[in-house]
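Any chance you could type out some protein's one-letter sequence along with its backbone structure tokens so I can compare the two?
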Amino acid sequence: MRSQRRWPFTWRNRNGKRRFGTSSFGRKGGIRALFSPRQEGIHALPFLFPSLLGMAYFVLLPFGDVIRRSFTTAVTGEYVGWENYRRVFENEAFRLAVRNTVRFSAVCLPLLIVLGLLTALILSGMRRGLWLKSVFLFPMAMPAATVVVVWKLAFHREGLLNMVTGLELDYMNTDLAFWVLVFSYLWKNLGYTVILWLAGILSVPKELIEAACTDGAGKIRVFFSIQLPHLKGSLYTITVLSFLNSFKAFREAYLVAGPYPQESMYLLQHLFNNWFARLELDKMAAGAVSIGIVLLAVILLLRRLLEV
């Protein structure tokens, strides 16, 4: 009696046992040949082409023009070589913005990743925690104007936080402004991090977890030996998205403190905004190319370290 295929990748053998992807039909040719990596790549090209075309036209070509402009003057378009880059790297405001941005990313990324993972682990064990998952996404839906009002009400010298604690701290005009920015970043971005961690945690095969628990493994051992190795892809995605979003924590800070905020929260976005206001486009181009190279190097390094 021949084996009967019940689903495209599932069938029963002669003994009636359910098999996944291992039959005589799939050994030479058949399903394996049809869905081999090389065939999948060829069949995917027509679907990827519109997206690749849009990215090339709206991203790669404009960035190529930015690279060209980084070697010319802003007004006359005269070729000046590496002069724009020298001016950028010798600019004290640029170095301050780079230090603050690196510090901001170094503080926020570990906190966001760890807090998101811990929250996702707690929610994954709750059967009726669906409404809590939605609450975590609420900050992302709030308009920037609303966030600015909340900031001013909470962190003003005579704001709500000082009224509750009885202190008279000036949060936005001292070094505490940096930690206000960190708090706002975590508050706004924790939601999508939790959702991505949850997706990764729930995709871990339950059979492996049940087998480990049967063998006497505790929750901590199960997490480090089974769940965490399966979360490498999620960790890479979350790290890259969080790293890129750390460069976007500008809008709220700009609306609250203006183009020249307290020194500890003066980021690269403030600097580029001020250069744009002064039409220093040559310095903007050189700075953008430098930052783009650093971002690409960090993303490739993360991919190499996590082996995804």
